[in-house]
Write a structure and sequence with these properties.
The strands form three sheets. Strands 8, 9, 10, 11, 12 and 13 form a six-stranded mixed beta sheet that branches. Strands 5-1-6-14-7 form a five-stranded mixed beta sheet, sandwiched between helices. The longest helix is centred in the first third of the chain and has 20 residues. Strand 2 and strand 3 form a beta hairpin. The protein is of the alpha/beta class and 256 residues long. The structure holds arginine. The site of arginine (ARG) has 13 residues, from strand 2.
């Protein structure tokens, strides 16, 4: 029995060597790694004419691509509503979620998270002439948030009424058209929006909004994939790739 196993191992080893040296060496034999995202969140994910993964571009898409490629896999993206992501993960429709997703205790109940790769905070986007300077100034204002985002949770916890939208750009349009006074959303995304829309500014309030960490989610218990993801993230953090990507995608315009 032992001999057979040894022989089989040897055959396998030779096959793998031959494979590496010949045609199959360059192809991605590890299969497809499908990431779920919601491509409505620049600079992390947005639709572009040509992106890192098909039409999807942004910091997260570049990270996803590298994770797949370093594990000899082909990256694929499933674009869906933000609130469907963790359900799709549980259903096995996707292998991982990369969506500028903040790690929260509640989300940790339905998924396992990688090491964090980005630190953000909620900020307030207002018209340039707004008198809002701190979060409590929102008390008597019309507040817009995005459905299912941590910004919605924050404003809800503060006890203020708000209106929620499916997309960041929809909330921004409300603000631009004076139908709302303030949009609460993640910092880097806010920077993109004020770059793309004239007459808006960002108001920060670090005593009201705690810092948040973005991480990749996998199905609970999928330690094999989580380890693969963590190895690549660790490397991309320590060699400066993540900072380079952040700088690149925060600087460049999203609107084409
Ligand atoms: N960081 C926020 C959260 O986790 C917003 C993320 C939105 N991401 C997206 N791809 N739409 O709730």
């Amino acid at each position: 029995m032992k001999k057979v196993t040894k022989a089989a191992t040897l055959v396998l080893a030779i096959t793998m060597m031959v494979c590496t040296l010949t045609a199959c060496g360059g192809s991605k034999d590890g299969g497809t790694l499908t990431f779920g995202t919601n491509a409505e969140f620049p600079p992390f994910e947005f639709v572009a004419s040509s992106g890192s993964i098909g039409q999807y571009d942004g910091i997260d898409m570049a990270i996803a691509k590298q994770i797949a490629e370093e594990n000899d896999m082909t990256p694929a993206i499933e674009n869906m509503e933000f609130e469907s992501l963790l359900v799709a993960l549980q259903n096995g429709q996707i292998d991982a979620v990369i969506a500028g997703m903040t790690v929260t205790d509640e989300r940790k109940e339905s998924a396992d998270f990688s090491i964090p790769y980005y630190t953000a905070t909620q900020v307030m986007i207002v018209k340039e002439d707004s008198d809002i300077t701190v979060a409590t100034d929102m008390a008597d204002k019309r507040i817009c948030v995005i459905q299912g985002y941590t910004g919605e949770i924050c404003v809800g916890d503060m006890g203020y009424p708000y209106e929620s939208f499916k997309k960041g750009t929809d909330a921004i349009m409300e603000l631009v058209n004076d139908k709302c006074d303030v949009v609460v959303i993640d910092s880097a995304t806010a920077q993109k929006y004020i770059k793309d829309n004239e007459g808006l500014k960002i108001v920060e309030d670090s005593s009201a909004f705690e810092s948040e960490e973005y991480a990749i989610a996998v199905k609970k218990g999928n330690t094999e994939l989580l380890d693969k993801i963590n190895n690549v993230i660790e490397k991309m953090l320590s060699d400066g790739t993540v900072s380079e990507l952040s700088a690149k995608y925060i600087e460049t315009a999203t609107a084409e």
